[in-house]
Amino acid sequence: MKVRLMSCTIVPEQLYVERDADRQLKSIIDEMERPGYVLVSRQMGKTNLLIHAKDNYENDREVYVYVDFSTVDDLTERDFFRNVIDTAIETHYEIFKEANSIISSLRQDSTLSNQRQYTREIRILLRYVDKLVFIFDEIDALTKTNYSDKVFSQIRSDYFQRVNFRELRKLTYILSGVIEPKDIIKNPNISPFNIGQKIYLNDFDRREFDSFIYKSELLLSESVKDRLFYWTKGNPRMTWDICVLLQDMQNLDVVKLDEAIGRYYFESFDKVPIDTIREMVSKDKVLREALIQLYYGKIDALDDSLKQKLYLAGIVNYQDRNIVIKNPIVEKSLSLDWLMKLQNDDVDYLEKVYDSIYIRHDYLEAIRLLERMLSLNTASKDELNKICLYLGESYYRTVKFSKALFYLQKINSSEVTKEVIQGNLLEGYVYVNQDDTKNALNCFDRNIKIGKETGMSDAYIDESKLGKAEAMIESKDKTLLAEANSLLVSFIAQNDLGSINIPLLPKAHYLLARVKEEDKQINSALEELDAAIMMATEEEKPFLLYQKLLLLKKDEDRNNVAKRILLSLDKKTDVQILENFDYTLKLDVYTLCLILAELILHFKEFKEVIPQYLKLLNESKEAAYNTICKTLLISNEKNAEEFARLILKLSENDKWNFGTDHIFTAYMAVFQKTRKIEDAIAFYKFMKQVNFSRKNFPSVDARFLCEMLVNVVYYYVFTIHDYITGKGVVKLFNDNFGQDTDNVVRCMALKKDYASYAISVFTKKPYIAFDEGGRFLLKWETFLNRVRDLDNSLIDDLKSIVKFVQDHQRKIFRAHQIMFVHKYGRNDLVIIRYIDSSITLSKKYKDIEDDLELGKCKILNMMDRSRLKI
């Protein structure tokens, strides 16, 4: 029976054409080591790819569960996780019939968090299968929920928890959407999704295109097939839709094909996927500007993220530096004339920037928009000041202080404008963050001077006075502290005159409390904090009460304030993620972590009520503890070690379910605070236990870990002479950090190589140790030639090591000289090779004698003098 093509959602199996993505998907599922995510624009066949895999690979022992996320915005967090489990059961009821009864019973009395309950239910399902593959389609719909981070955190955790629950090795995930998981995650510090493997679903190549035409049983001439491929470039949806049109056409030729495509796509532009692409471009000025740059051949102006955005919109294909519009149909639908008309009709560009910075906190997007505006060179003088201010703000909040200063200092200050005042304030805070008190004070003083000379009443000028006080307090300088005291007393006194910004008063009292604390006037500091608390908003009270708690000594007083803190948190349903740069008293994630750490560690009487406040950070108490630990570690808080040790202790309790990454963070926090060898060894043993791999911890501080590993290998080699364990430490270092180009890491690598050399000296034959010593000295020379901006103490430490190696190499050479050289005259020409190279050289013996003695090179043979041309 002849095949009949019809418009359909799911491609019939007999017409399905496999692509590289199918093979990559199968490989990921076979390996079961990490989640895959299919990254592709709409109407490219991703759902068919997923369903094809399910239909072809599923059996009674290997279960595939397809879940469509397009309606998740109607689900609560609890319903979402339950829906995933319920879908697995409902679609495979005969397999999971018994599991269903167990899960239904457990749900009735469960007090577990949603994520822990989900893990428990997954483990129950895994009892009945050899492989469970969840296929999550349309993951971009998670952007509409407030629990997207928890979904990705759970997926990530399911892989790391394999250390504790081996059955999770039978579970894997495949995700699919038109947006990367990292772009859905709202707080990557809490829920980094860095373990997935991308699957790119590309257009048909010519072989795949011909395979589809063959399967469709369409009788097309070679010229028509060539022309059809020219128009679609293998786009599956377009190829299918055009073939539906062609199957009933008589006497088809290239002219008729062109006419059919013109009528179908270009008369009203309402056919899939052109309608979707045009709608996206009409709403997104960044896409439009990128396309205009592409039309003008300015490919270098497009960064990788912008190329990715164009790709996911279904507009371009790109590889490395080559980027082209997908096909002539897309190109004609997005003509330059149409793009320019949209540009002229668009709303204010700077409004989008403002929204990106202050509403959505998407600073990278703001930077892209602003730098695009600068490249167009069309901004007016006033707009240029705003652009520089917004760029300064965006770079400041992405901790790129030098770039922030570059743009803030480009603001034209010939006239006093709002941008000038805001720029001075922001520049001052940049310098505060850099501990540059002198320049910070100059910036704040510029605004204070503007206020005096113009009589202007402006919140940013008032805030500059507090910024100045804060800079002086941070300096710890006694003279500046006294000046800060006078400034703050004067600022607060103006309240009676009604001439200052009232919302700033709590902060003024708080800063004055800090001055009093620095001066050891604790009672006065407490009085200022009480004044601040009395004037503060509900959002500010938790922070101020916490500051008071830290100053109190009596248990009764501390307990009373702790109760007030908990009361102030009772009405909270969520907490803002404010940057440290905001210099606000409002409760944010950072302050909440400090508060909860203090209460957990030092107020055991609140043990039963603390879990409800942990949910402000995460539904999972383990994830919440991890967030607290990371916050304490990053901010170098005094409670960091104690809290990390608490996590390590709790991880041994069956009632707690910490992930591998949680425990890793705790070990790291302990050693970072103590620098004790016993803590380094415990950390190393944990890394060995979980088969540490840097690819699973890509954001780890490599410098810190390498320092720790060097401490460990030195202990085993030089203190207890356990060379076998020492070799294991060296291998772990080499496997994970051996290719790192960071100068500090390379410095640590040389220290590690010294330990490796010592192992060879103590355990191997002299000539093997001699070779390793030579390689070490050559590495040192290379390092010294390339290193820049490294702490002199690190270099000096290495120099003493190098001196020891050189002395020992000479001892080996002299003790075993017959093994290395024959008798050569000083002017004899010899063929040599340095042991880190494959290149042979001819040198006079006297020129390489020292290198030979140090083991850096070897003599291959002496040259025949009679053959030399002199």
Automatic annotation (TrEMBL):
Pfam families linked: AAA_35 (PF14516)
Domain of life: Bacteria
SUPFAM superfamilies: HCP-like, P-loop containing nucleoside triphosphate hydrolases
InterPro entries: P-loop_NTPase, TPR-like_helical_dom_sf
UniProt name for this protein: AAA-like domain-containing protein
Originating species: Segatella copri
